[in-house]
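[Q] Does anyone have a clean structure-token version of this?
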Amino acid sequence: MPPRNSPPSVRPADAGRTDETKAGQRTRRTAPGADAPRLFGRQRAERLAPYVLLAPAIVIVVALRLVPLLMGVNFSFTGDGERDGTAVGLDNYAELFRDPLFRTALQNVGLLVLLLPVAVAIPGLLATFLYLRVPGHRFYRSVYFFPAVLSPVLVGAIFNLLLAFDGPLNAALGNAGIDPVDWLGDPDIAMFTVVAVHVWATFGMALVVFLAGFSTLDATLLDAARVDGASLPQVIWHVIVPGLSRTIQFAFVTTMIGMLTSMFGLLYVMTSGGPEGSTYLPEYYIWIQQGEMNRPALAAAASTVLFLLMLVVGLAQIGLLRRAGREH
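[A] Here you go.
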């Protein structure tokens, strides 16, 4: 008999198991490829996740943008009036380029392209001063963005009063001994006036874009430039412009699209396309053909030309800016 005070016997965990059983368990635990199906499924889910997240946006873009665009292009090859719904080939496009008003609109598009660097440089420089925290930068940030929340119709009405031939601006010029200027009635000046008002009313959005771009700029580069004694123009040209190259590309493209597609309200209120059709843009021409002349097929052709113009100008701008960025 075992001693009365001896501890109870404890059976080892592996007692009664053969060496073959132990080896089999170890083999099952460490068998290569045991988790392969689960790992493969996880990797496949990770690869599909971006497409699943993008799918709703892609469906919306295709349904609300791409499909109407293709339908509009197809509609531009049909006739108006007596030839409504009849295929007319390129007749609408030929008529467009014979129309002096449409040719004027295309010339004004060229003018916008030439003025585009100024329209982008203004918010870019102002954003630079705000980023460098000039005195009162918080106040100026609010003031600069305020015009962006105003309706184009309201902006046009305000500047109609300010720029009238007998308005406050000409009165101030007269007090300074300068002859009054017909800002909205002179065909050589009216388009520049409308573009200037548009830039004033919309540069707040580009300003926000530039401020967001500055948040990604490496501040140590600016500090190094200051230590090296670089002037402000040198800092802007050699540090800020290369560092914000993608932001500048985005600002150029969006500003150009805004000029070509968002000036209708100003044109309608300030000049109604005049004087002598000098302030026509493709967008205003499209509205005239669709809304007043009841020529939707011709308007669709003009819309197609406008789309191609924006595509070509946008791609050209991106190419030039990328080349300039590489040179820096």
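[Q] Thanks! Anything notable?
[A] The CA atoms of residues 287 and 293 lie 9 Å apart.
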